Amino acid sequence: MTADPAPADPGDPGDPGVGRPLAVPAFRWFFTAEVTSALGSAGSGIALAFAVLDISGSAAAVGWVAAASTVPMVTLMLLGGAVADRLPRTLVLRGTNATMFVVRSLAAVLVLSGHAEVWQLVVLQLVAGTTEALGYPAFHGMIPVLLPPQRRKAGYLLFSQAQSATRIVGPAAVGLVVATVGAGWAMAFDALTYLLAAGFLGLLRLPRGERAAARSSVLRDLADGWAFARRLGWVLPVSSYSLVFNALIAGGIGVLGPVIAADTIGSDGWGVARSGQAVGVILAAWLLGRAAAARLVHRPLVAAIAGFGVTGLPVLALGLGAGTVVLTLAFGAAGAGFALIDVAWGLVVAEKVPEEMLSRIQSIDGFFSFVGMPVGELLVGPLAVAFSTRSVELGLFALFVAATVAGLSRPALRRVELGSSPT
Question: Which domains does the chain show, CATH number per domain?
Fold first, then answer.
C-alpha cells in the first residue's frame, strides 16, 4: 500500500495542516472506526465479568474467561504481524471487526436468552483473542500509511487523547447499562460498535500498493521480520524493557493496587485515582502537541524509557500508603508517561521501519508487552503472602528505577534520533 491518498503536504512545519490529521479523509474514517470500536471495548470486560458472575457466581470462572482471550493474543501475536504485512491492512481490520461483531453478538444473545454457559463464553473469548492477535498489529501499522511524516505526531497524539476519553466514558456507560438492564445489553452494545467500525472502514479508500507476484510463506515472513528487528538493533531492547515495565505495572497496579485500596481509600477512591491516568494522558498529549515540547521526542527511545519510569509513580504511592489525592496525582503523572511512550514509539517506528515491515515490528513489541502482564500478575501474589503488600510495592518501584536507569544508559537506544538514518 502507498501512503496518503489526499494531496501531498508541503512539509512545512509551520503549515497549519500539519496539526490536523483529520483533514486526511482516509485517516478520518480510520480514526472514526477505531474510536467507535474502542468505546464499546472499553467496558466490555466489566460486562463480561458480571455476566459470568450471574451464570456461575465464581471468581475463578471470571479468570478463566478473561484468560481465554489473553492466551491466543500472546501465542499468535507474531504470526498476526506477518499476516498483517502480507495482506492489505484495511482488509485485515475490516475482517477482524466483522468477526468481533459476530463473536460479541453470539455472546450477547446467549446471555440475554439465559442459555449462556461458562464454557461457551470461554470458546468465544478464544476466538476473540485470536482475532485481536491479527487486528492489533494491523492497527498499529496504519498511521504511517495513512499520514505523511509531518502529520504523524498529531495523529498519534489524537489517538492517545481519544483512547483515554473512551476509557473514561466507556466503563461508566457500561456500568450504568449493566446496573439498569443487564450485562447482556451492554455486550450487545459492544457488538454494535464493531459492526459500525467495520462499516466505517469500508469507506476507507487507499490506492492499491505494489506486492510481489511470488510471496514467501507466512513463516518465512515471520522469520524475516525477526531478522529485520535484530538488524535495527533497538527493537528487541525496547521490547524487552516493555516486558519488564508491563510486568511491574500489571502486578503492582492491576493486582496489588485494588488490595491496598480496599484497606485504605476504598473502591470509590480507587476509581477516582485511576481516572487520573486518563486525564494525564489527555493533558500530556495536548502539551506534546505544542512546538516547545517537540524536543522531548527528538531522542524518541530515551523519551519512551523515561515515560516508562514515570508510570511507576502509582506503585510508589501505593507502597507509601498515599491517600486519594496523592494517588490520583501519581496516576496523572503515569498517564503523561504513557502518552510520551505512545508518541515516541510511534514516531520512531514510522520513520525507521519500512511500510512492508510495520506490522511485524509492532507485533514483536506487542508480544513482549502482553507476555509481561501475566508474569507480573502471577508473581506478586506469592510475594505478597511472604511479605507485606506495601513492601512488595516498594520493591517493585525499586525495579522500576533500576530498569529505567539501565534503559537510559543503553547506547543502542540513546543514539536513535528522529530525522537520522533508519538504522
Answer: 21-208 (1.20.1250.20), 218-423 (1.20.1250.20)
